Write the C-alpha cells for this entry.
Amino acid sequence: MSGTYISANLRREVVRRAGEICEYCLIHQDDALLGCAVDHILSEKHGGRTEFDNLALSCTLCNRRKGTDIASVVPQTRRVVALFDPRADSWTDHFRLSADVLTIHPRTEVGRVTARLLGFNEFHRQAERALLREEGRYPPRAARRKAQPSGLGRQVARTEKMG
Ligand SMILES: [Zn+2]
C-alpha cells in the first residue's frame, strides 16, 4: 500500500497482466469484497519503485495484511524468509490449492511465511472461497492454469507424456 500516484495506464497494464486476479490468493477482482489494489512488491519504504516490474495486483485483504512487509520469519527455525514475489516466483512452486479449493497450502518456506502473513487461510477467507466455489468462481478461470487443485496439472502432464 502506498500513497504514490499510479497512472491509469500503468494500473490497467498491471490488471491485464494479472488476468484480473489477486496474484497472491487468486481471487478475481470482481469477487473480492473490497476489490483489488496495485501492490508494490518491494515496498517504497524499502526502496521499491513504482514501475511495472515491481507491481502486482492484490486484493485489498492481501494488500492490507502485507502492508510494507517484504519478509517474515519461520517460527520453527527463526529464519528470515522473503515473501512470495509474483514477478520472480511461480505460484505453483510455492503454493497449492487443496482438493476442495478452500485452503491454500504452502509448499515452501516462502509459501509458509506468505500464507501466514497474508492470512490466506483465515476462516472468513475460506468461507468466501466456499461461496465462490459454489458459483464456479474460485479458482477463477484465469487462475486455473496456475492453480490446479491437488496436482491435477501434473497428472495431466504425466498422462500426456505417457500417451
Ligand atoms: Zn488476495
Summary: The pocket of zinc ion is lined by residues 22, 24-25, 27, 58-59, 61-62 (CB under 6 Å). The chain is about 35% helix and 15% strand.
